[in-house]
Amino acid sequence: MTFDEPLPLRSGRVLEQYELVYETYGTLNADKSNAILICHALSGHHHAAGYHSAEDTKPGWWNDCIGPGKAIDTDRYFVLSLNNLGGCHGSTGPTSINPATGKIWGPDFPVFAVRDWVKSQARLADALGISSWLAVVGGSLGGMQALRWSIDYPERVRACAIIASAPKLTAQNIGFNEVARQAIINDPDFHEGRYIEHNAYPKQGLSLARMLGHITYLSDESMRDKFGRDLRKGTLSFDYDVDFQVESYLRYQGEQFSANFDANTYLLMTKALDYFDPAADHDGDLARCLAQATARFLVISFSTDWRFAPARSEEIVNALIHSKKEVTYLEVDAPQGHDAFLFPIKPYVNALTAFLARNFDDVQRENRGAH
Amino acid sequence: MRIDLELIAETIPKGARVLDLGCGSGELLAHLRDHHGTVGLGVEIETDRILDCIKQGVPVVQKDLDTGLGNFLDHSFDIVVMSQSLQQMKAPHRTLAEMLRIGREAIVTIPNFGFWNARRYLTFLGRMPMSKLLPYGWYDTPNIHMCTLRDFEDLCREQNVRIKQRTVVDSQHRSRKLINLMPNFLGEVAIYHIENNA
Description:
The complex is a heterodimer. Chain A is an alpha/beta fold. Chain A has helices at 114-127, 141-152, 171-185, 203-217, 220-227, 245-260, 263-275, 286-290, 310-322, 346-370; strands at residues 2-3, 7-8, 14-15, 18-19, 21-25, 35-39, 66-67, 72-73, 78-83, 97-98, 103-104, 133-139, 157-163, 296-302, 327-332. In chain A, helix 1 crosses helix 2 (141-152), helix 3 (171-185) packs antiparallel against helix 4 (203-217) and helix 3 packs antiparallel against helix 7. Chain A is globular, with a radius of gyration of 21 Å. Chain B is globular, with a radius of gyration of 16 Å. By secondary structure, chain B is of the alpha/beta class. The termini of chain B are far apart.
């Protein structure tokens, strides 16, 4: 969908016109009370569920939770998922043409803040005639968007599910992001972000960034279970080639990712993560910041997630309790680390299912009462 | 609803903000919401119970009561409730103090170890007491800090806690005139409504 109304950004810059790519699943009901917005994490995009074609090897990134009979039941709910601005899967981003110059945006594309994304999502909702969401749901960076929704558009969010997320990054987290960015920027094929014009891309840098990221998304336990210290060829090579299975796996993941993801988008997304801190507008007081929210909240963390540890989720929960909001919190025991939010882990999926169903039932009851 | 929860619900004023420690399936909080117009929050450790709460629309946070209360602000709730769990705490005296830090008032229900049948077990059978209310063996019981009514009231005195009201009942949570003649001998469960002495 194309938008011609300029979008003023947190950075002070303005995006004059833009395009958003989205997918929907399920059917919007007559009173438009069953719409759920799915916010994606760093490398996700609009394709959240199902297969596009029979040849697809992988379904959408959150296929475990979205679909008929699943937690986000498409027989019941109308589900919308989009590729955020600055992304590299169809929405306007660094690989698009800058209308002002007629050239590819590249590094000149504005850096986005989470609130900018939320604003653009609100405009998409307007265009689709959705005045309020039954729920806004997101994991990781998506959880930050869900939180931002509840603060910036309280009247438009009935329920808010924040999964494996945090109210802001720690210095350690920003550190990881910076190493990832440096790997990209220092790749000889980066060309100060104008790699497309040079018919190149920073394959090594992006691959390294992904390898680092990947390690932080898994847990020590899950890596041990998956690879242990298994050797690829059965013996040590005593050179710097791949010895261990885990090395081979990370290299493969890195290469796959670098071939399919835009480096400038990666830089932009990690910056948005670093900048996120809604409490900053309220002297660092998250409870005060959340005072304006009216949604019912579900917050879920995972025991082995060290990138966004349970304690980070509890910061959100405590602030919600302090500001007297309705909040339910669950720390799910799961070995998968940060990535756990993409797996069908029973207590987690059951909690999300029950939370959405309860809010849906309440809305239906209220609407019946109003008529 | 469980009768002890009904007894608790009766003491809670309309519109109060209630924190229910060890809230289980959220029965009390759902009842309070539907009939007393109260807004509450449960604290529970069991995931399955939390799912029940979500289904009932009762907000609940997963925390270990022994370690997880520190983040609640002073006097952030009107009433803090703990039903039949104080004896399962590692340090009941600290939990009690925490309850009256977080809430202006608290309601605690405790099983009475001074009940005649418990005394019978020890005196005549020479064994650790078991009953419908306390059905566990000595080695696997979650009830690690049993007390009598007299013990609990001593603790309240020590911690400068005022008992606003005490209701002593039998195992069916019925109050009988006879019980009040010798509550520490005839009562099986006591419901204490307490606050800090000014």
